[in-house]
Write a structure and sequence with these properties.
Elements lengths: L4 E5 L7 H7 L3 E7 L2 H8 L5 E4 L6 H6 L4 E4 L7 H10 L5 E5 L6 H14 L5 E4 L3 E14 L5 E6 L3 E7 L5 E6 L3 E7 L4 E16 L4
Parallel strand pairs: 1-2, 1-5, 2-3, 3-4, 5-6
Antiparallel strand pairs: 6-7, 7-12, 8-11, 8-12, 9-10, 9-12
Length: 211
């Protein structure tokens, strides 16, 4: 069981209150990535840290979180999300949950997905938006239990070798995808599903049932 979970809150699309509460369950440390502090304020969350170049934070917001540790890094060669990720990794977390990092500007969204893909090799990542939860699967065997009826999408911008999807409505067996892979809106038809592949990386998006 994950015990040391860190959450990073960004300044993308704000999550519904119940989803924020779900994402923050059992979280030990909350990091606001620069203007993610505004997201925290609107959601009624007090972070443990605010980190970034502070170019998107008003003095009023800083005053609101006067008791929160502010880490002001002026380095312009890394984004605020990268700064937050590095801080999170310094805490040796068992897992990292990302909140409000998607939506709004497409360049920020795409850059963040690249960061998260690299981050996942160091600590398991869960990315929450208003419609579901994204996880990043490295090569190997991944069991998905007790999810019968669950809508799940898979995609990869890179080649995937020997991909098998077992227990799904649209199964695969040892298929190779030489450029990319897109498998939108598959369904778990069993309580014992699995994903297995030999090389590549898969983004797995679990659609929330209450949407």
């Amino acid at each position: 069981m994950q015990k040391n979970i860190t959450a990073i809150i960004a300044n993308g699309e704000i999550l519904k209150k119940n989803l924020v509460e779900r994402a923050l369950q059992n979280v030990k440390t909350i990091i606001a990535a620069d203007a993610g502090a505004e997201t925290c304020k609107e959601a009624g969350i007090t972070p443990n840290f605010i980190i970034g170049d502070c170019d998107s934070i008003s003095h009023e917001l800083i005053d609101t979180f006067s008791e929160v540790e502010l880490i002001h890094l002026t380095d312009q060669y890394s984004t605020d999300m990268e700064k937050a990720i590095n801080l999170a990794l310094s805490m040796n977390p068992d897992g990292i949950r990302i909140i409000s990092a998607l939506g709004k500007r497409m360049d920020h969204t795409f850059a963040n997905l690249l960061f998260f893909s690299d981050l996942n090799k160091k600590a398991p990542v869960e990315i929450f938006d208003n419609y579901g939860i994204m996880r990043i699967l490295e090569s190997g065997l991944h069991n998905i239990d007790n999810k019968s009826g669950q809508l799940i999408s898979f995609f990869s911008p890179k080649p995937v070798a020997n991909l098998s999807l077992t227990g799904f409505r649209y199964p695969l067996k040892n298929e190779n995808f030489d450029s990319c892979f897109v498998g939108i809106s598959n369904v778990c038809d069993s309580d014992k599903c699995s994903v297995q592949f030999d090389s590549g990386t898969l983004f797995m998006y679990e659609v929330l049932n209450d949407n």
